[in-house]
Structure formats: C-alpha cells, structure tokens
Amino acid sequence: YPVDRAAEDKDSNMDLLQQYLENYYDLAKDVTQFVRRRHSGPVVKKVREMQKFLGLEVTGKLDPDTLAMIRKPRCGVPDVGQ
Amino acid sequence: FTTFPGLPKWRKTHLTYRIVNYTLDLPREAVDSAFEKALKAWEEVTPLTFSKISEGEADIMIFFAVRDHGDFIPFDGPGNVLGHAYAPGPGINGDAHFDDDEQWTKDTSGTNLFLVAAHELGHSLGLYHSADPTALMYPVYNPRTDLTRFHLAQDDVNGIQSLYGPPPMSSPDGPAAPTESVPPEPGTPATCDPALSFDAISSLRGEILFFKDRHFWRKSLRTPEPGFYLISSFWPSLPSGLDAAYEETSKDIVFTFKGNQFWAIRGTEVQAGYPKGIHTLGFPPSVRKIDAALFDKEKEKTYFFVEDKYWRFDEKIQSMEPDFPKKIADDFPGVDSKVDAAFEAFGFYYFFSGSSQLEFDPNAKKVTHVLKTNSWLNC
C-alpha cells in the first residue's frame, strides 16, 4: 500500500483489451492470465488485426490510440469470425 | 465492406419490420421515423422494400433492451456496446436489438438513434462490418457524422448491392439485372473531372443515364451518389461509345443510337427486331450518324441533332416532320456548337457540348444557365 495506481490502470486496460479481442476479433478465451500472455504470438497477432481493421497504426501494442479506440461506443457485432 | 460468413441474405425483396417495444428516451413517432429513415437509406440503393407491422412475427423484429435480454449476448450498461443485430434468416435472425442503457437522441447530443439503427439494419440485411472509417458499417460509432448531409458511403452501396443488386429501373415489371456498381478503375472516366464530356444522355423511368465510352452513370433524384456501371452489365448486346439516346416515356422505351443503327430497350431488355437503320426514321442518306437526341414529352416530339442542324420526329404519327432540317442556332439561340448529348427535364432542355452544359428554356427560347457537364453527378 498505497495502491500502485499505474499498475492497477494497466491491469484494467489489459482486461479491456482482452475483452475487446475476445468479443470482436475471435481471440480464444483462455484461462491463462492475459497480462502474462499479452506478448504472445496469438495476442499480438489479434492486436495487429484489430489495429489494421480499425485503421490504426499497426504496432501490436496497447498504445494510447488503440486504448482510446477500444473505449469508443460501437456495435456489438464482431468485426471478424462467426 | 464484408458480408456474414456463408453470405446469408434475404431471398425476397419485400421485408416486414416491427418495433416490438419503445425506448422512453424519445417520443414514439421519433423512434418510428428514425427506423423508417434508416430503412429508406437501404431501400434507395437496392430492390428492397419494407413495411411496418405492429403485431406478429416480422422479418426484422426490433427491440430495446438492457443487460441480459434473452439472447446470450447481454448488453453492458451505458457506453461501449450500443446494439447488435443478426444476419438474415428465420426467427431471431434479421432481428436488431438496441441497448436501452444508452441515451437515445434525435441529434448527436446523446447516441443518435437513426445512425445506429441504419448500421444495425445493415446487419439485418446481411452486411458485416466495414474497415472503411467513412462507411456506415464501420463498427465504431461516429458522433461527428453530419446528419443533415447523411448518405451511404460508396462502400456501403457496393456492399449491399453485392447482395441485392441496384434498385430496379423503377419498373413495374421487376428488378433490373443485379449488377455491381463499378468502382472507378484506372482508365475509366472520373466522375468529377472538370473536362468530362458525355457520349449520350437519356432519362429512364425517373432516373438519368449519362453514357461515356463503355460505362454509364445512373442518377436517381433520390440518392445523391450516382451509380457507375458497365453498359454491358445491363445491356450486353449494346455497343459502347454511343452517339445518342432518348427515352420515349409514353412507350417506356429508351432508343440508343450508334453510327447508322439504333436499338430499343425496355428496362434491361433489348427489344426484338433491333438494331434498325436510322434511315427508317426518315433521315436522308447523307446523314451517317446523329450527335444527340431529346424527347419532349409535352409535345411528344423527338429532336435529332446532326452537326449544326436538327430534325424533328413526331412520335404520335411515327414520322419525321416536313420542312426539316433547320439550323440549330436559328431555333435554339445560344446553342452554337455541335451537341454531344441532350435531354429534357423539368421543362428545360439540357444541351451538352464538350465540358459545358446549357440549360435552355424552350418557351422563353433562351439559354437560362451555363453549367459544368457533371453538375448532375453531385460534383
């Protein structure tokens, strides 16, 4: 204590990203903690796919533009997959 | 644009919709009109038509709901997900659900219902999301959309027409052949090129067709964006590079001319017995081709323009009038150069020569406006 605010924000942003990729980019739901696998191939690949589809710079990382985009209101239908 | 996996689409062109319940954010009539306007946007660019029912099972059932609403995809409270919809098909398919935890508004002070409705109904018709940020089917809501100038992006039109084709030539006897609007490729004429000239122009069942080389623009007065098509995609047997065209509206026939031949087409059907020779209309052998033609529906007479002269054909008695040809400049003061194309609309004659267009008032017998040729193409 005190709470490490930055670390907490980072975790919640990661949760947001995980949910977004699972809901809209067909990222397989996986019990492994997302934060630990955020640099793994499949996740980076999905981040890049999402950034490309939405017209963002394709960095493979949760950069500020990408974070702002996944916070925006949108349609609930996925962007890829079934 | 993308379509749903498996390409689900409606196998009929007339669809019903029902607004099962209403958000309390707006008066009922505002909700009704938002959905009506949203469906009209799709109706204008396809053969689809929609009618609203108030009870029973409609093709497209529209719900407002919050959180878990019985379809295993709960909404998430204010913000984030605004709505979702299902691809065409029976039961829940085709339905559209809207998150009533949003603040639905007629403007963009909250979440604009018309915009989200038009998007979700795009799904109900079979469109998936688009990666074009200017398209209605882009997944992220754009609160800065100018509602006063809303129209579907070309990507949206290309997408929905890949499923259902373009609107029929507003013909009583069914839709025209499903044909792709051709996105401009290299070597095709650019719609808003200031030097654009036309080969021929004709009305057709309330639309205006602007012919150029192998293509034509099809302008409906209801949609700002003209469609762009290959002539051969509607009329495979017609030649490209036409000389002239006009619609004899009382017969629902468009006559198209090239060289010393002409064709009669009704909708997408070239009539049997054509092409015929232009001399069967009464032209002297010295006339090899005509430059332009326009039909005056009031007088039921067709004007044929050849170099600096013109003939007049009486459509009622199907005969070229005596005492012709006459000098164009004598009877159409201000129309001094060779006419490339011409048509009549709203009681005016429109003459096209090179990159200019003259609006001529046949009663006042004078040119009333000088315009660019592509002023009709939303340039």
Class derived from helix and strand content of chain A: mainly alpha
User: Spans of chain A with pLDDT under 50 lasting ≥5 residues?
Assistant: none
Give the amount of beta strand of chain A, in percent.
under 5%
Strand content of chain B: 25-35%
Rounded to the nearest angstrom, the radius of gyration of chain B is 25 Å
Greatest interface and its residue counts? A-B, 16 and 24 residues
> How do the helices and strands follow one another from N- to C-terminus of chain A?
HHHHE
- Give the N-to-C terminal Cα separation of chain B: 24 Å
What does this structure look like?
- The complex is a heterodimer of chains A (about 80) and B (about 375).
- Chain A is mainly alpha-helical.
- Chain A has four helices and one strand, in the order H-H-H-H-E.
- Chain A has helices at about 5-25, 35, 40-55, 65-70, and one strand spanning about 75.
- Chain A is globular and about 40 Å long.
- With about 375 residues, chain B is of the alpha+beta class.
- Chain B has five helices and 25 strands.
- Chain B has a five-stranded mixed β-sheet, with helices on one face. In chain B, strands 12, 13, 14, 15 and 16 form a five-stranded antiparallel β-sheet that branches.
- Mean pLDDT of chain B is about 90; it is low at about 170-180.
- Classes of the chains: A mainly alpha (about 80), B alpha+beta (about 375).
- The interface between A and B is medium-sized, with 16 and 24 residues.
- Strand 1 of chain A pairs parallel with strand 4 of chain B.
